[in-house]
Amino acid sequence: MSHRHYPFIEKGFENLAIKLFKHQARENKIYKTWLESLGWGDEKINAIDTLTSIPFLPITAFKSQKVVTGSFTPDTVYTSSGAINSQHFVSNKNIYLRNAQMCFESFYGPVKNYAWLCLLPGYLDRSGSSLIDMAEYFISISNHNESGFFVKGIDELKYRLENLDLNRVPTILLGVTFALLDLAESIKNPMNLNHTIIMETGGMKGRREEPIREELHHKLNSSFGTKKIHSEYGMTELLSQAYSFKEGLFSTPSQMLVLPRSIETPLSLSNVGEICGLNIIDLANSDSCAFLATDDMGRVHENGNFEVLGRIDGSDQRGCSLLSINSN
Predict the structure, then answer these.
(1) CA distance readout (Å), 226 to 102, 191, 312
(2) Is the model more confident about 227 or about 320?
(3) Which residue from 18, 27, 30, 307 has the fewest beta carbons nearer than 10 Å?
């Protein structure tokens, strides 16, 4: 499929991706074995000259295999929630944290300028969450002492939200979706937050029924007095994050690209604008695999932005799935 279908692919990114693909195809045993099963030997790998020809590793490989490039002693191992956990081996946690900071700052400016109020139950209850490490790091570099995690002190959280907003402090309320909804429903008199970004992440975690995104965002906006709800898209198997400023339309940082995958023939790509599986290239995944066929269903747009519309049938309910479309 030629590049005219994907006008958002830049030559510099493509060159880096092809170079990383050739390296990982040789040095990542799991990826190499999988490529060989598809008939990709050294000759075919060396001859590749377009990003759209690269085969994407099914993300489920992280559940059963140690997906690493080269040999190293991991500094940290990130794990997913769910019945069968994915494992992501990372050689240097600081590289992950600095990369997460770069992703955020490319859209929102310096992390340190914001007060960070984090409502992440479920993640805090277990070890190995990359989201918790990111939130802890952002809290630690914030210029605002009010930053922190909130588990039970919901009244304290409301007080800080109102106080920071009154003092015109740029604030981010980063919350797992079900917890934000619980908080919104506990607010009797709607707030009027003018300097606060409500940012959802992580879906419902099976705690509540998945609502339609429009209904959820309307409920949150009504309770917090905000005009739009932001979202963070990340997962255990990726080191980078994408962000949505409204209506569930995500933008990728410079080291990340999303391509549409055919749902009928998963080894083929599909056209922009169509319902598809999401294939993600994350150049920050240099220790693991940068080319992942996710279980998320969505739509990729002409400018490279993407939506997440739910899970592909047959894939398990991942904790970080975004809000699903109405299945009725």
Answers:
(1) 26, 8, 32
(2) 227
(3) 27
Whether residues 98 and 229 fall in one domain: yes
State the CATH number of the domain containing residue 198: 3.40.50
225 with 115, same domain?
yes
Give the separation between CA 252 and CA 294, rounded to whole angstroms: 15
pTM of the predicted model over 0.70? yes
Nearest to 176 by CA among 234, 223, 221, 261: 234
Show the tokens assigned to 33.
């074995």
Cα 96 to Cα 115: distance, rounded to the nearest angstrom: 21
Would you state the structure tokens that stand for residue 274, as one six-digit string? 């169509």
Total structural domains in the chain? 2
Per the structure block, which two tokens stand in for 311?
Answer: 């899970």
Q: What whole-number distance in Å separates Cα of residue 65 and Cα of residue 287?
A: 14
Element (H, E) at 221: helix 213-224
- pLDDT 10s digits, 231-256: 999 999 999 999 999 888 999 999 99
